[in-house]
Amino acid sequence: MRGIRAFGLAAGVAIILLGAGAQAQSNYPNRPIHIVVPYPAGGIVDIVARTVTEQVGRDPKQAIVVEARPGGNSNIGTASVARSEPDGYTWLVTGPAVLINPTLYKDAGYKDAGWDAMLGFKCVGLAIWNQSVAVVNSSLPVKTLGEFVELARSKPGHYNFGNPGTGSSIDLTAQKLFQTAGIKPTNVGYKGQPPALIDLSPT
């Protein structure tokens, strides 16, 4: 996707979730806390998770380990947390995919994948809320979204969309935009935002 024929969207809502059913412990925490990020390292959710742990880690005086477990548009990492012991030592930092995926993937529901957004987790905090941003390679001759739409309409299929995950909030937002604008960029799948942004950058 290097060069000028590229288009991308960056967005994210990170929610800190904890395995439901954790029992109160007077000496909690007495061992390291494990935080799972179901997205690639370097992405917005990973950055948020590490920023939050810097603050949280000052209080419990216990080590906090952050692990990126990407794959399946966050389904793999999410399922691993849902299947962990509900003791408060395994956390999940994720985005809206935890609510969206069960409606998009037949194996993302509770019966097949072992987790359900409403039954398998307990929300303990909203970390951030941010807006979607459309970005293109700086060499592309456009300065506004409207200008990009007009350019894409003039060359159907000529430009690419760096998709960080089918069914992700970024993907759904982009597809709605393309449908409304009447443009059809070529979909290029990536395992998260970081590699898509690297290919979007000027050479």
TrEMBL record:
Source domain of life: Bacteria
Annotated coiled-coil segments of the chain: none
Pfam families noted in UniProt: TctC
Keywords tagged on the record: Signal
Segment forming the signal sequence: 1-24
Family assignment from sequence similarity: Belongs to the UPF0065 (bug) family.
Protein name: Tripartite tricarboxylate transporter substrate binding protein
Native source organism of the sequence: Bradyrhizobium sediminis
